[in-house]
Amino acid sequence: MDRSLEHELVNRGHVACPGCGAVLAMRYVLNVLGPKTILVLPACCWSVITNRHPNSAMKIPVFHTAFETAACTAAGVRAALEIKGVQDVNVLAWAGDGGTFDIGLQALSGAAERNDDIIYVCYDNEAYMNTGIQRSSATPFGAWTTTTPEASYKERPKKDIMAIMAAHNIPYAATASVAFPEDLMEKTARAKQLRGMRFLHILCPCPTGWKCASDLTVKLARDAVNSKSFPLYEIFDGVRYKLSYKPGEQLSIAEYIKPQRRFAHLKPVEVEAIQQQTDERWKRLMHTVSSWPA
Amino acid sequence: MKQVLMGDHAVARAVQLARAEVISAYPITPQTLIVEELSEICARGELDARFIKVESEHSALACCMGASMAGARTFTATSSQGLLLMHEIMHWSAGARTPIVMVNVNRAIAPPWNLWSDQTDSLSQRDTSWLQFYCENNQEVLDTVIMAFRIAERIFLPVMIVLDAFILSHTSEVVDIPDRKDVDAFLPPFKPLLKLDVDEPHSFGSITGPAEYQQIKKMRHEDMMDAIRVIKETDDEFEKIFGRRHGPVSAYRCENAELVLVTTGAMSGTTRIAIDRLREKGMPVGALKIRLFRPFPAEEIASSIGGAPKIAVIDRNLSVGAGGIFAQEIKASLYGKATRPAVFGLVGGLGGGDFTPDAIEDIAKRLLGAQAPEADVIWEEL
Q1: CATH homologous superfamily of domain A21-290?
Q2: Would the CB atoms of B69 and A63 count as touching at under 8 Å?
Q3: What are the distances in angstroms from CA A45 to CA A69, B4, B49, B263?
Q4: Which residues of A touch B94 (CB under 8 A)?
Q5: Which residues of chain B are within 8 Å of residue A93 when distances are taken between CB atoms?
Q6: Measured between beta carbons, which residues in chain A are less than 8 angstroms from residue B95?
Q7: What's the pTM?
Q8: Is the CB of residue B211 less than 8 Å away from at least one CB of chain A?
Q9: Could you read off the pLDDT of A35-70 as tens digits, one per residue?
């Protein structure tokens, strides 16, 4: 394996927190997409991670845009490339969960409905981490954030962004986890080969916001999958579901959330409620997957 | 070639002649005819452009910004609420130095609902670093859209062209449409200094500290101030090819005037009719049309007023709590002058009220007899 950093498109000198899952995700995705990629970054952790002017950790062109405009700005970049006859360049919109599930959802829905030819990655760390850990609609049930303090933790489940994207009948949507880099890169390669709107939803643990040790990022990204909290699957054309990985012996939700102090206030009965929600979601997913035999 | 065109269709023809490459827009009355006509033009293959029909004005402008960053000539159009929704991206696109051209059809802001002419929508975008032109007739609309691309692409700031709802947008007038080859000679293809390019990667808009931020903002201000020179040069070059010029401002019969009526947009033509009638009766009145709002043509206004002791600024707009916006700007620009006229700030025609020649004649007669304004805002009931 080439251990030099010369081929990396995320350079030395980025300013992510220790243990940032979102940096792993960017490295894996860009390793597959390659240098012929234009990156559109709305407000999110990554708009800071690239480092401050005049330095940049990125070896590809980057345009910083407004919070809610990742998808439509990227669509504009693609339109310009098309009219100029440039065909071999990836246009990558890279947004956090706030910029995707919440404020950017309208623009994303518009681009998805038009089937604009972009790759849209949502790196999901399950809250507004860049502004200091406030709840988003991607924050899971029960979690503490600075706007959902322990005494009034988040009482609604995480929004099902994949179902929303599937409802737009886009060519490709997939979930991925930074603990499964081969799977993540395979999915990126699949997205790269297709045209139209391609959506990747990547779970990126955030030690700062999840209140855990910074060496647990990959373990938690793996436990999220093995506890069926964050299943790995693909959706083709909005209808054909394919499971990417079936956990062996299921890890309990209690085990998954134990190292995360954002859940430390939960009573056993509340943890059990999350377990039930998780099992129910998995059952529904399996039902959908089984209706499309491999 | 002369043709009878509505203002909105004059815009579409100008965009076609200017060979816009990426268009992105969202429908809103009374701008809709522009996007409908451009859709037809693109569908017929008469303009080789990508037209992205987005889900909001906010996305429309962001789309144009992305396309402009990647090197395409871009256009959008809107009105009223749509323009207000774009506000954030107006700042962003100007900061990103993307030379987008936008047409805003002036329409009143709700509530209550009102679809007619009122300039408060565009004037409330004053501080977004966009150039703003206010047009008097459909010929000026067509010419200004073509000029706007050239000005924007020289100074790397976006330009807004404004026309009155219905009074111009839906009114048919004779418009001289330039030949395509002449427009091509006047307006060469867009060549960005820098763009999103995988062969020469740059980051645009990364976080800065206070010193760099202020420096970048100062450069933008200086380039905007320099735009007056570029606008005049563009006027000269336009006149050489097309035989018409429009100027940042234009004065009409201001010689020896006791009173100058200052107007913008479609009411400027009406005002000249009133001035002719009054001059026939021997009354010393003139008119000054302001076409350019940003950058503000302070010197041009001061010299055009000449020695007139009184001016009356007629504002079809209102900054609630302050008054008419052109009146405020003109007062501020005259403050440092050794001799300055009394400024009467008139507000009227909000939400589409019609300034007829008679109404303007009445205003002039009344103010000729007045010594000083009795209030900061003089309301005109039409």
Answers
A1: Thiamin diphosphate (ThDP)-binding fold, Pyr/PP domains (3.40.50.970)
A2: yes
A3: 15, 54, 35, 49
A4: none
A5: none
A6: none
A7: 0.97
A8: no
A9: 999 999 999 999 999 999 999 999 999 999 999 999
